[in-house]
Design goal:
four-stranded antiparallel sheet; globular; Immunoglobulin-like; mainly beta; five-stranded mixed sheet; disulfide bond; about 0% helix
Length: about 250
Amino acid sequence: MTSTLTIYDLSPNDVGRYQCNMDNGIGSPAVRTIDLTYPFAPRIVPVTRWSRAAPNIVSNKNKTISVTQSTLISDQLISIVKGAHARLTCVIAAEPNPEVNWLREPANLTLIEGGQFHSVVKSIRPGLYHAILYLIQPQEVDLGRYFCKVKNLVGEDIGRVDLIRPTQPDLPSSPRLLNATSTSLTVSWTQGFNGGPEQNFLYVARKYLLAGSPSTTLILTQFFQNIPFTGLTGKQAEFLSCRLNNQLRNS
């Protein structure tokens, strides 16, 4: 038996990973994954949380400096990116994979790979890439506007990331209830700009902390964070809150 999926009027929006599941009720289903590629010009995807970047450095009143180590460092650069750094990200829709050059104002100077600057292009799925620039030991003079110029055989585009001083994290947005039972909830939200230092969050169901623990803290690392609330009663499910913080301030 053969099953065929036909897509008409193919466009860049159709590029991605498709999965075919075959199940006749006997044994485990058979699964096949197919990547659909279609050449199209690069396009910078606007993502609010990555429109700005800040160093992971925090200076207190006594002028002492502490550094929060990022959990998002690419495997290719784990031995290079240590200590104080800033991480700039451009999200790119393109196929085939784009060539990326980083520039900065003034005069749109092209940044040379090595030394203070290290870059990587990470494939998320067919048609979607992250271009990441690590700026090592950033100083005040490094603050400003940076640009990722991307191109492939079909076209080109340019995106902008502002490198600013460390600040408090932005509020999360778009809270969503993904699933609910009589004793549990699963919620998600969209992460905002982290302010530079790694951010944590504390989530609470009404006035009771989860699972009898005095507090529960996790590190946000993704676009969306799906959190299960278990062991709840009907009264506890009336109100949920999420508070973000980094070493500078809460939001």
